[in-house]
Specification:
The chain is α/β, with parallel strands linked by helices. It has nine helices and 14 strands. The model has no long low-confidence stretch (mean pLDDT about 95).
Length: about 300
C-alpha cells in the first residue's frame, strides 16, 4: 500500500472509512465464489480468459469478435420528466461506462475520436476503468488520463467492481469528481438538479444510497450514478428520478438478437441493456465502451450514450 495514496484517502474519506474500505478490498478482491450480489464471479477467475478465448477460436468467431469490440457506437437516448426544472430543458449527459482502458487500445482510440467533437453539459463515468480486478492499476489510470483529456468538464464518476479505491486520488487529480456515496448540485441560475453516486454495490457491497440521497431536498430532480443497476429498487424508493449504470456489458457475448447468455447481475433481463422503467424511476444500463475478461463482443456492440433530458 502506497503511503502517499493512503494519506490522500484518509484526508478524502476520513481515516476510519479509508481503512475499512481498503480492508474490504484486501479480504475479497480475488474471491471467485460467495462474495457480492452474485455467487460466482467470472471476472475474478484465473482460467476464464483462456477458456473464452479458446472456445471462440475453436468456433471460428474470435477475430470477428475482436473487431466487433473495437467498433464503438454512439447511442442517443431522449428521456422526458415532469419534474425537471425549465432551465434544464435539453440538458445533455455523455454517459461512458466500463472502459477497461488497458485491455483494448484500438477501442480507446476510437472512443477518443468519437468524443472529441461532441456537445454535452456533463460527462458521467459509471465505473470499471481497469481490465483485471486485481493487480496493478497505474496502466488503467494512464489510459483514463489519455481519454479524459478529450472529455469536457465537468466529469463525474463512480467506481466499479474492477476498481480499487486506491485509484481515487489519481482520478481526482485528472479533474474527475469521484462520487463515493456523495451528491453534487448542478446549478443553472436560480434552478438546480442533484447528481449522486454510490460506491460499488455489486462485489464489494460498499454502497450507501441513503447517505448519497440525504442532501437532496424532497421533490427535487435527482440522478443516481451506480456502476451496477442491481440496486434499482433501493434507488427508486429513495425517490431518484433517473439512474445511470453499466456493469452488465449487455452480456458482451450474446446470441443473435442481442440475447445475453449471462449478464453477471441479479436483475430482470429487460434492465440488462438500454432504457427501462421501474415504478416512477427511469433507468438506463449502458452496455459499455470496453470489454471484460477478453476484448471480444458478439451481437452486442460497445457504446457511449448521449442522454437528452426533456420536460414533459
Amino acid at each position: 500500500m502506497d503511503e502517499d495514496i493512503l494519506r490522500k484517502l484518509e484526508i478524502r474519506l476520513g481515516p476510519l472509512h479509508a481503512r475499512q474500505r481498503l480492508g474490504i478490498e484486501r479480504d475479497h478482491e480475488a474471491q471467485v465464489f460467495g462474495q457480492g450480489l452474485t455467487f460466482f464471479h467470472l471476472e475474478n477467475s484465473s482460467w476464464a480468459e483462456w477458456i473464452i478465448r479458446n472456445v471462440l477460436k475453436a468456433t471460428g468467431l474470435y477475430w470477428r469478435a475482436r473487431q466487433n469490440a473495437e467498433r464503438i457506437l454512439v447511442k442517443r437516448n431522449e428521456m422526458r420528466f415532469k419534474t425537471i426544472p425549465p432551465r434544464f430543458e435539453g440538458f445533455t449527459i455523455l454517459h461512458v461506462s466500463d472502459l477497461h482502458v488497458d485491455m483494448n487500445e484500438v477501442a480507446m482510440n476510437r472512443l477518443i475520436e468519437l468524443v472529441g467533437s461532441m456537445q454535452y453539459d456533463v460527462c458521467v463515468l459509471t465505473g470499471d476503468y481497469r481490465g483485471r480486478t486485481v493487480g496493478p492499476f497505474q496502466p488503467a489510470l494512464d489510459g483514463v488520463a489519455r481519454v479524459a483529456t478529450h472529455l469536457k468538464q465537468p466529469i463525474y464518476a463512480v467506481l466499479g467492481n474492477h476498481d480499487t479505491i486506491q485509484m481515487v486520488p489519481g482520478l481526482e487529480a485528472m479533474g474527475i469528481r469521484v462520487l463515493l456515496n456523495e451528491c453534487e448540485t448542478i446549478v443553472r441560475k436560480d434552478q438546480r438538479i442533484y447528481l449522486a453516486g454510490i460506491d460499488d454495490a455489486h462485489f464489494f457491497r460498499v454502497d450507501n444510497i441513503e447517505k448519497a440521497a440525504l442532501p437532496i431536498p424532497r421533490g427535487e430532480f435527482s440522478i443516481l450514478l451506480s456502476h451496477t443497476p442491481e440496486v434499482y429498487r433501493q434507488a427508486a424508493h429513495a425517490n431518484f428520478d433517473l439512474m445511470l449504470s453499466g456493469h452488465t456489458h449487455g452480456g458482451q457475448i450474446c446470441l443473435p438478437g442481442s440475447i445475453p447468455i449471462k449478464l453477471e447481475a441479479v436483475l430482470p433481463r429487460r434492465m440488462g441493456a438500454g432504457p427501462w422503467q421501474y415504478r416512477d424511476m427511469t433507468g438506463y444500463t449502458s452496455v459499455g465502451a470496453g470489454s471484460s475478461v477478453v476484448p471480444v463482443r458478439l451481437n452486442c456492440p460497445p457504446e457511449i450514450t448521449l442522454h437528452y433530458l426533456r420536460r414533459g
